[in-house]
């Protein structure tokens, strides 16, 4: 009877492969190229923004106007810069329904926001309780309207540009 000796094999050490270090410069350049492909907005030093053939800039009254590079005249006028950018995108795609919707949304937000400011100014001076409650309800309602319009504008901006 011969017995064979059991031989235990030593476990092999895992081979650690050395991965080459990524070239940060090349990665940064590729990210920048991808960003430039997706982001079509070009900010200018004076605060205006260019989207394709349209320029969105602030006029003397503090409103944001859309002008075309190749044409003379104003294409649209908005109270909010983000609405003007969405409007420029819808104009470039010739989506006039979307342009009119964003124009109405801009107007609704501005009106609601202005009413909130008026209510906040008037409420501290009211002596009559009934009048106070009416103004408080108006303040609450217009705050709700302004917040909803602001959320809708933010959602549309993200859909358009992000």
Percent of residues in β-strands:
5-15%
Strand order of the largest sheet: 1-2-3-4-5
User: What's the story with the biggest beta sheet?
Assistant: 5 strands, antiparallel
**Oligomeric status of the shown chains?**
single chain
Count of all domains:
1
Nearest-integer average pLDDT: 85
Helix content: 40-55%
Pick out the low-confidence regions. none
Tertiary shape: elongated
Total DSSP helices: 4
Number of strands: 5
Structural class: alpha+beta
Description:
By secondary structure, the protein is of the alpha+beta class. It has one domain. It contains four helices and five strands; from the N terminus they run αβββββααα. The protein has helices spanning 24-38, 81-92, 96-122, 129-161; strands spanning 41-43, 49-51, 54-58, 64-68, 74-78. Strands 1-2-3-4-5 form a five-stranded antiparallel β-sheet. Strand 1 and strand 2 (49-51) form a beta hairpin. Helix 2 runs antiparallel to helix 3 and helix 2 crosses helix 4 (129-161). The longest helix has 33 residues, at 129-161. The model has no long low-confidence stretch (mean pLDDT 85).
Topology:
Layout: H1 24-38, E1 41-43, E2 49-51, E3 54-58, E4 64-68, E5 74-78, H2 81-92, H3 96-122, H4 129-161
Antiparallel strand pairs: 1-2, 2-3, 3-4, 4-5
Summarize the model shown.
This protein has 162 residues and is of the alpha+beta class. It has helices at 24-38, 81-92, 96-122, 129-161; strands at residues 41-43, 49-51, 54-58, 64-68, 74-78. The protein contains four helices and five strands.
